[in-house]
Amino acid sequence: MDTVEVNGLSVAYRTAGVGEPVLLLHGWPTSSFLWRNVMPPIAEHNLVIAPDLPGFGLSSKPLDGYGFEFFDELLDGFLGALGVTQVAVAAHDLGGPIALHWGLRRPDQLTRLALLNTLVYPEFSASVIGFVRGLLSQARRAEMTSPEGLAEFMRLGVADPASLSDDVIAAVQAPFDGEEARQALAAAGVGLRASGFKEIARLLPTLEAPVRIVYGAQDRLLTDIAETVARLRVDLPQAEVTELPEAGHFVQEDASDEVGTLLAHFFAGNQK
After folding, report:
1. What is the value of pTM for the model shown?
2. Rounded to the nearest 5°, which phi and psi values hold at 245?
3. Domain boundaries in the chain?
4. Contact between residue 49 and residue 23 where contact means Cβ atoms under 8 Å apart
5. How confident is the model at residue 231, as a pLDDT?
6. If you classify domain 2-131+191-268 with CATH, what class do you get?
7. How many other CB atoms are found less than 10 A from the CB of residue 68?
8. Nearest to 211 by CA among 232, 225, 230, 231
């Protein structure tokens, strides 16, 4: 892992390969670790950059301020520090709206976009509303961000909970071994406001970059994923869509080989 200072925060990141850059954005409660098995095939043709977003992994964990503007400025500073002017992006979970809000405002910088089991639109499902309400409740927040809560969340996010090894669960839990880190994790889960999602929905049809959608159909965390993908097909008619019927929310865990191959092929098309 390398680190770079961005806007006064330490941002940890993984890199692999050479070529046109590809940025991989994780969601809640994961980190660049989620992409570990997906990175090698993409790196055969591209420079792959996978940061731990602030609030997660080994990066700084401020206790508040995780709005869309925060992440827009964070990505600008991070890419600038690495000397990246144009980039392809793959994004999962909360990383999806972060990538979309940033990229829709910077169409000349976003070359390609891949979306994996993410939320996009301001009409939130009951599962997302329940998640946010839980993190806003002091009692539920402590439970959800505890080691046991994170283990339960990760197991719920894969098609077969028994398939998730203790080592993987421990790697997700490790960055949140203190009370402040868990408070930051909760804040990062509720910082994106509805107004930003409305802006995404309004601007989405203007996106002209190539789009790849890969999603696990057995998503018990984003229960409306099929509806989201159906709406994306309308707003982004250029999108190529692959459903993975045996995978859950964390497709990188359930189907790392297939996801890596699909994304590698998509991003290799970005070569000049």
Report:
1. 0.97
2. -65, -20
3. 2-131+191-268
4. yes
5. 98
6. alpha beta
7. 21
8. 232
